[in-house]
Each structure stands twice: as C-alpha cells, then as structure tokens.
Design a protein that fits this description.
six-stranded antiparallel beta sheet; 39 strands; Beta-Lactamase; alpha+beta; 25% strand
C-alpha cells in the first residue's frame, strides 16, 4: 500500500478494480475517474491482479465476489497474506449473509452490493473508498503515535508498563525489566494477570487492573491508596527475586488514543524503601523525643527571654501545681512562680543565656499555684525556636534533698554528741583520706588532741604502721562498693581491737565518706569460738534462704518496715522488667508509679502490722513497660537473728492469663447458650442406649412437646417405618469414633401428625461434655412439599416450551426459505438490468452505427437473460399445479431418453459431444410420464450445457427388486465439492459458470421437488472443477403399483 501522509493528499487515489464483467468494469472506471479524484486500473480476473506484482502500489482494491477461478473471498485472503494494510472493498451482486460475514472475518474493509441506479451506487462506492483510505491513514497515524508513546515509556526512569482494555501487556520498559528481571519479550502480549507474577508470585489484580473499580474493591488488595483526578496512587510491599521485600509507590492512569477514547492503562512503580525507612526513623525519633519530654522526671520548659512560658511538659505542670496547659503556654510569665527574693537572679540568668554565656546549674525557690514553696535545681540553654531564639530549661524538684540535707545536718549534730560520749574511737574520712572528724577517745591511743588530727591525711598518721596498709585497703573497698567491713586487730600489747568500717551515703546514694569505729574487745575475746560458730551458722542460714528465694518460680521481694526494698529474686525482676540494681534500695513510690498502687501497698502493710495476719489480696499492677497485670499478693514478716521483726516479705502471683481464660470460657458458654436457644435447628444429644439426654427448646415450637417431655427413648418420637433405619445408623455411628451420619426421618408432633426432619449426627462419645451422639436437625416438611410442586410445574413447563420451540423452528425455516428465494430472484434480475439502465442513455445519444450496434447487442443479450429468468419464475409459481399427478402409466425409460436426446442432437453435434446409452428396452417404470420427462430433460440439458467440446455424456439404467436407477454422467466443467450442498438452491450457479447466461437457474430446484413428488430421489456427485458431474435418479417401483391414475 502506498504510504499515506498525515496532511491532506492532492494526488489521485490509485485504485485497482477487478471484475469478470467487462461492461461493469468499463462503467465503473468511467464514473470513478470523471472528477479526477481516482486513477482506476481495471482487470478481469484475480489471477491477473496477483500476477501484476504492483499491488502494494495501489491505495485501495475493489473486487467482485463471484468470478471464475479465484473468487473475491479467495482473492481477499491472498491479498491479506502479503499486504495486510491495503483497503479492500467487496463490490458484488451477491447478498447472502454468510458471504458478508466471511468477507468481514477475512479483513474486508467494506461490503457493497450491486444493483439499482448506477449513479448513486458508484457515488456510494467512491465514498467507501475514500473512507477506507482515510481510515488506514488514521491507523497509520495512530501507529506512529503509539510508537512515540511507548518510546516515551521506555525512556522513563521509573519502572513502567502498560496494558490494553483486555488486560494484555502492551508495554514493558527497561526500568521494569531491571526491577523484575523479566525481559519485555517474555511478558508483552501476555494477559490473565501474567504481569502480577514477577511481584507476588501469583496471578492477582494489580492497581492498574483496578483503576476503574470502586474503592471497596481496591481496598481488598491495597490498604494505602488514594485518587487524584483520574489517577490512582498506592503504596505496597512487593518481593523480587534478587532482593528482600521493598516498598514501592505506584501511580496508574488511563491510556487514550487520538480520539480521546480509553484504550488501556499505564502503571509506574518507584522504590521508596529507603524513603519510608528514613521517614519511619524520623517518626520514631520524634516519638522518642516526645516520650522523653512527656515522661521525663524533670520539668522541661521553653521560655522567651522576657520570661513568657512557650512550652511546658506534664512534669513541669505538675511541679507548679497547674492543670491546664492552655492557661499557661503563651500566657504566664515564669516570674509568676518564682519567689520574689529570686526575681533578680532569674533576670540576670536570662540575660547571660541571651548573650550566649555557657549555662550552669542554679537553685531557686518557687511558689506553686497552690501557694506551696518548693526548691528547684535548673539549668537553661539558648536554642533556636520558631523564627527566633528561646531558653530551654530543665528543672528538678530538690525540696526533699534540701530537707534531707537539713535533716542530715541535724542528725550529724545529734550523732556528734553521741560520738563525743562514746567509749569507741570514731574516725570519719573522705575519698582523699582527709580526716573529717574524730572523737576525744582518739587521745587515749594516740596521745594527741583531736583538733590536731582534723584535716590531715589518715594514711600518713597512725600509731601502728604495720596495720595502716590493711586499713587503707578496706576503706578503699567500702568507698567502691558501699559494703561495710569488720576486722579484728591484736595489738603488740595483747589488746584486741574490733573495728567496723561503714559507708556514709549522700542524698543521691553515693558513698560520700567512710567512718571507722574501733572498740576494745579484749574482755570478750574469750567468747570468740562461740561467736564464730554462731555467725557461721547465721551465714549458712542466710545463703540457704537466698537460694530458696531465687529458686521460687513466683516473684518474691523483701523490704524494711520503712518501705525500702532490701532485695528480690530473679523472677520478680523479669516480671516487672526492672534490673535488680534499680530495685534494691528504692522506696515503694519509686517503684510503683501510680499513686493508687502505692496507697494499696501501704494499706496492705498496715493491715499486716495491725493484725499480724495478711490475707491474699487481688489487685492490679503495671510493670516498667506499661503492661497491666492482675495479681494476688500475699505477705508476712521476716525476723532477724535476735527474733525481732526485720521487715516484710511478699510474693506476687500473676493471674492475668487465668482471668482472661475464665472470661473467655464465660463468653463461650454464653455464646453456646445463645446458639442453642436462638437457632432454627434442633440440637439433640443421644446416649449409647439410644436415649435422648438433651434437646434444645426449639423442639417446643416445632412439635408442641416441652423439651423435658422428649427426654427418654428415641423410639417414642420417630415414625415406626423410619425407626429401624435410623437406629441402624445410630448404632453404626456409635461403633465408629469421629464419624458422621445424615438422614431424613419423620418425627411425632403433639397433635398426632408427623414432621419431616433432616439431620446430621456426629459421634462425640469421647467428648466428656457430650458423652454421646450430637444430632443437628431441621424441619424440612414445607420445603419438601414445595419441591414436589415445583417439580410438577417444571415438567409441564418443559413440555410446553418444547412444543413452542418446534413450532417456532418450523416458522423460522419457512421464513428463511422465502427470504432466500426473494434474494436470489432479485440478484438474478439486477445483474442484467444494470447494463440496460446504464447503456440506454448512451444509446439515445450515440450516432456511430458500430457503437450503437455493439450497445444494442449487449442490451439484447441481457433482455433474453431477463426473459429466461421470468420464465423460470413462472414455472416455479406453477409448481402447485405440477404437484397434482393426473396420469399414471407404465413408461419405457429407453424410449423417453432417446426422444430427449434427439432434441439436443444438433447442439451436441456442434460441440462434438457424444451420447453413450446403456439402458435395456425392457426397463419399465410405472410413474407420471410428464414429470419423468421434465426431470430427465433438465438433467440432460445441464450435461450438454456444461460439457467441454469433444466431451461425452453417459446415460445408464438398471433396476433391482425395489428401485429403478438412472445415471447421467459427463466429463465437463464439474462442481466444487464445497458447493455440492447448495446446488439445489433456486438460481444457484456454481462459480465457474456464474456468468454463463444459460446457467441452471431454477432448474435443479424444481427437478428435486418433482422427483420427490413421484417418490424418487436425486444425488449429484463431482470430484471438482473440470472433473465432470454424475447425477443419479432413484425411483421406488412399488409407489404407484396399486394406484389407478390417482
């Protein structure tokens, strides 16, 4: 096909017109070339067109359908094999529906039927040609547009592919090849969700397949999606062959053609795994920061340099005893809560922070909203805030520490009085071994006043140098681990000294100093063995107790009467998720964060202290991770070696899982009760003796019996005709554990009638809750009655439908026969009428004698053709009278054949056609002579007509007991095998003789009807074109034997 440019063409359209009727070719060329829009090349056969070799140079092809040799459909197929893009228009007088369908199926662009006024006919033809050419131009432009689009897809950096409206992959770019390791050649053209396998390993709809689906359908496959205009976005996790799961961002949108019609969709995928991971990390970081601020034990504030509070965390709000953030942030000045005596210091500190001076810790007194005075320790730092700067303040309530330090000073004064009067030597040193205190008793041993020792290094001053190194080592050890050390020294003088080195802790639980107490124990030394044995036994008991506590599988702790925890076993630290070092030494309000938990613990301890007996108590606790537990706590006293109460030991039993299980069991029991009472089915339990032990209340509504009335033998309520079968099934079920049985049976109702039940029984003998057979039954009485009525109605409906279908099929066949006959007559008349209508105007204007003679000859030939067709139509119309058999006689077959052959002798002699007969003169058939003559005459006429020159026609006859058979065979033009079944259609003409004006027409159609009328049949066979034809006539000999001209 010549390439059609996208701009408007000015050259004539090059057209190839093929038709075996030269009159129509000339006429068509004349009409199409009048305006100069077309340049027409005409040929009389498809063979010539195929041999031309220049078909691809034409812009379009117009072809007749019925032509000798290669017809229009075959010509179309051959053209389409080599030149699939050339517009092809079938222009013919044949109008059968199957021909139109075959033409369209094989790629014809248009099908145009000949006949009628030639001027509008060729105008319509020229319109179809232009339309076909323009359509090919549009398809070519679309192809270029699609190529450019798919080139664009391949240039995208994102993994992109496209599908058409049928779900077939039409594009697969390089980026998605790299992502999925699937080459485009392996996926393009695939459908049935093939494109989902590289991502999910199964066939399933992807986002591109769901673009036109409602959101409810999309949410079944994608949880994170949204629409933006006509595009659809989603995030999804996919698995690929060479990498772990990745997160992709997906966008899909429609694909349009140049006419704006949706022809498919495009989907792009972008790997956003790192982006999501970074976002999640940022989110986690924000959460951690928020948790740090929200749950910090310190108050955190952001204030402006003028003192306005811009932010405060919950701990800060709690510290100033306010409850509403909105009333504080942006409204209150920090000076509103600072003691007036500290205002000047605050202003000074803010100014220093503003100037960028490094922050340091300071202490201030606050006045809370409830007018309480507290001490805080805080530090401020300059930070960027919004569009400016502000001060980040971290503050801690140190009121308890201040009070502790005050109390400590008072305690030190008290202890100093005691120490001054103590008979023991008491020395206190700091970490540098500087002597902080010593009582007057030191003078008895060192012969030096205490004032001269204060501030000196204890390591350089000792009356007994040989023991100094040992003492220094023990003091260092106490500073490091905070554990007291006890030691005995025997002096050179024979005096025994017992010294105790113990730590002094600061408020933050750090060893700030070590005190050494030295006592003369010479007088009591003789009890040494007894004491050693006692302490050894005490140590063994303590080790045994510790081992026992740590071996107990439940959490155990022990604490002093002042609510400070002294120890716990490993089970408790695992239960509360608290390391031992964070538990030992802490008070209850430091371990239990909720005030109500602290109050309960104190209340339990008070009960124990009052009565000496503690009853196990149910309560709730929260571990360090925030998990709440239901527990039972039990407590008791423990005693020291002197029999005094040393503290309280407690055990915690976690019953959370037990409570959950109990609640779940209670819910299941309630659910089972609801199912039993509300179900439309009947639930029955039958024991191994075939006795009903339980039946659901539903039975009362169905049968009229109360449930308790049914309890007892099954046999009472089952119809006697059903009981033997049902009992056999139940006994079989009992002997086969975990088996099931289904059955239908009739059950007695209170009014004496029976209802039909359908049941399924399960062997639950091994289930202790049932210990029998569980039967679920349903009343199907009304359902069964409805089924019977429905079956009856359906049977009657099917009989009626079959009758209607048979009558409809008969009417349809008759209508098809009528339409076929009318179409054939119209076609036969249209072909010869067309040249008459076209040539008559030219005859009136033509002056040349030879041209007028040629035109008159063509018109005369077509007029004869019309007369012949009219004669055959009249003959067909008279079939009604021919179907009346007026005369029956004995007919000599040979005589009839010879008479007919004499009629065609002259025609046969001209073509040198020989007649060869082989019929016995005794071959007699009792039949209708006029009908038999018409039948044989028509067959011999066709044999002569379609024989080649120098051909032969063989006529043979024979008979058997039942049939008389006559064969008429020629070696002429023959018939295509595919046309044998259509040879008896009215006006049918086999293609090789299609335009022979003396073709069979109605002859064979009438012949078959005549031979059927006199009890015979006709069979036609041929090996193909040019292979001759054989017609076999078969007649029943017995049909008219008993008839006497009826």
């Amino acid at each position: 096909m010549a390439i059609i440019e996208s701009h408007e063409r000015r050259d004539p359209i090059s057209l190839l017109y093929v038709d075996d009727e030269e009159d129509l070719l000339t006429l068509g060329k004349f009409f199409l070339e009048r305006e100069g829009e077309f340049r027409v090349h005409i040929l009389t056969s498809a063979e010539d067109a195929l041999e031309n070799g220049n078909i691809e140079c034409y812009d379009a092809i117009v072809s007749d359908y019925q032509m000798p040799g290669i017809d229009g459909i075959k010509f179309l197929k051959l053209v389409r094999k080599k030149f699939p893009d050339i517009p092809f228009i079938l222009f013919t007088g044949r109008g059968r529906e199957e021909v139109v369908i075959e033409a369209i199926n094989n790629g014809a662009d248009f099908y145009l039927q000949k006949g009628g006024d030639p001027k509008p006919l060729f105008v319509e033809l020229s319109h179809k040609i232009r339309q076909a050419v323009r359509r090919k131009q549009a398809e070519y432009s679309l192809m270029l547009s699609e190529k450019q689009y798919f080139d664009f897809i391949h240039s995208l950096l994102d993994a992109t592919y496209a599908i058409n409206r049928s779900g077939q992959v039409v594009g697969w770019n390089r980026a998605i090849e790299k992502l999925t390791q699937v080459p485009s050649i392996d996926i393009v053209g695939k459908c049935n969700y093939e494109h989902s396998i590289p991502f999910y390993g199964i066939r399933r709809p992807l986002l591109i397949d769901l673009i036109d689906e409602p959101d409810e359908k999309i949410s079944q496959y994608y949880s994170d999606f949204f629409r933006a205009g006509s595009s659809l976005f989603a995030n999804a996790t996919i698995s690929l062959p060479d990498k772990p799961e990745i997160i992709v961002q997906i966008i899909t949108y429609h694909l349009y053609n140049i006419a704006g019609e949706v022809i498919g969709a495009v989907e792009s995928l972008r790997d956003i795994t790192e982006l999501v991971r970074t976002r999640d990390q940022l989110t986690q970081s924000e959460i951690k920061f928020k948790n740090l601020v929200e749950y910090s034990k310190d108050a955190i504030l952001i204030i402006s340099f003028s003192g306005i509070i811009q932010f405060i965390n919950p701990k800060g709000l709690q510290m100033i005893e306010e409850s509403d953030f909105d009333l504080i942030i942006g409204e209150k000045n920090i000076l509103d809560y600072i003691h007036p005596k500290c205002h000047e210091g605050i202003r000074k500190e803010l100014k220093q922070v503003y100037l960028g001076i490094e922050a340091y810790t300071v202490q201030y007194k606050l006045i809370t909203a409830k007018k309480r005075e507290i001490w805080i320790e805080c530090i401020g730092t300059k930070i960027p805030y919004l569009d400016s700067h502000a001060v980040l303040v971290s503050a801690r309530n140190i009121t308890d520490r201040i009070n502790y330090e005050t109390a400590l000073k008072e305690r030190e004064n008290h202890l100093r009085v005691i120490a001054e009067s103590s008979p023991d030597i008491i020395v206190r040193v700091n970490r540098d071994f500087k002597i902080l205190y010593c009582n007057p008793r030191i003078s008895d041993y060192l012969d030096i006043s205490p004032e001269k020792i204060l501030g000196t290094d204890a390591r350089n001053f000792s009356a007994y140098d040989q023991y100094t190194e040992d003492w220094i080592q023990h003091v260092t050890q106490v500073f490091e681990n905070g554990i007291p050390v006890r030691k005995e020294w025997k002096m050179p003088s024979g005096i025994w000294l017992d010294y105790l080195i113990y730590p002094d802790f600061s408020h933050d639980n750090v060893v700030a100093a070590v005190t050494t107490s030295i006592r003369d124990v010479t007088k009591t030394k003789f009890h040494e063995e007894e004491k050693e044995l006692y302490y050894k036994n005490l140590l063994v008991q303590r080790e045994l107790t510790d081992a026992l506590l740590h071996a107990v599988p439940i959490p155990v702790y022990w604490k002093s009467l002042k609510q400070k925890y002294l120890g716990c076993n490993q089970t408790l630290t695992e239960f509360l998720h608290i390391p031992p070092e964070e538990f030992v030494g802490k008070t209850i309000d430091e371990i239990w964060t909720r005030k109500k938990d602290v109050d309960k613990i104190i209340e339990f301890d008070h009960d124990l202290m009052r009565s000496g007996i503690f009853h196990p108590t149910h309560t709730k606790v929260i571990d360090k991770l925030g998990n709440e537990h239901d527990v039972i706590i039990t407590k008791n006293f423990f005693y020291d070696h002197e029999g005094n109460i040393g503290g309280i030991v407690g055990a915690i039993l976690d019953i959370s899982d037990t409570l959950k299980l109990t609640n779940e069991l209670r819910n299941r029991e309630e659910l089972f009760r609801m199912i039993i009472t509300q179900s439309l089915d009947i639930f029955v339990i039958i024991n191994s003796r075939l006795e009903i032990t339980f039946i659901s209340p539903r039975i009362e509504k169905l049968s009229g019996y109360l449930a308790e009335e049914i309890i007892g033998p099954v046999q009472r309520f089952i119809h006697s005709d059903d009981y033997e079968r049902i009992s056999d099934q139940l006994y079989r079920l009992i002997s086969n554990p975990s088996s099931t049985e289904t059955a239908e049976f009739r059950s007695l109702k209170r009014d004496g009638s029976y209802m039909l039940l359908e049941g399924i029984a399960v062997n639950c003998v091994d289930n202790p809750a049932i210990n029998g057979i569980l039967v679920t039954a349903r009343d199907i009485t009304d359902h069964r009655k409805t089924e019977i009525k429905l079956d009856t109605s359906l049977t009657q409906k099917e009989i009626l439908e079959r009758t209607v279908q048979e009558r409809t099929r008969e009417v349809t066949d008759l209508l098809k026969l009528k339409n076929s006959l009318i179409t054939a007559i119209a076609h036969e008349l249209r072909t010869p009428l067309t040249p008459l209508k076209v040539l008559l105007p030219y005859l009136l204007k033509e002056d040349n004698h030879d041209s007028r003679t040629e035109i008159i000859g063509v018109m005369e030939k077509n007029t004869e053709k019309i007369a012949s067709i009219v004669e055959q139509i009249l003959q067909l119309a008279n079939l009604g009278t021919m179907y009346e058999i007026d005369e029956i006689s004995d007919v000599n077959i040979l005589a009839v054949v010879e008479n007919i052959l004499n009629i065609y002798a002259i025609t046969a002699e001209k073509e040198n056609i020989a007649f060869i007969t082989n019929i016995s003169d005794k071959l007699i058939l009792r039949t209708s002579l006029p009908h038999l003559v018409s039948i044989i005459d028509n067959i011999i006429s066709n044999a002569v007509k379609f024989s080649y020159p120098d051909g032969n026609v063989w006529i043979t006859g024979n008979e058997n007991d039942d049939m008389t058979i006559l064969s008429i065979r020629d070696n002429g033009a023959g018939i295509c095998k595919e046309h044998i079944n259509m040879i008896f259609e009215p006006f049918y003409k086999e293609d090789t003789s299609r335009h022979d004006r003396s073709s069979p027409g109605l002859g064979l159609s009438v012949t078959r009807r005549l031979i059927q009328l006199i009890g015979g049949s006709i069979t036609i066979t041929s090996e193909g074109q040019g292979m001759g034809t054989e017609v076999i006539l078969s007649f029943q000999k017995s049909l008219f034997l008993d008839m006497n001209n009826n």
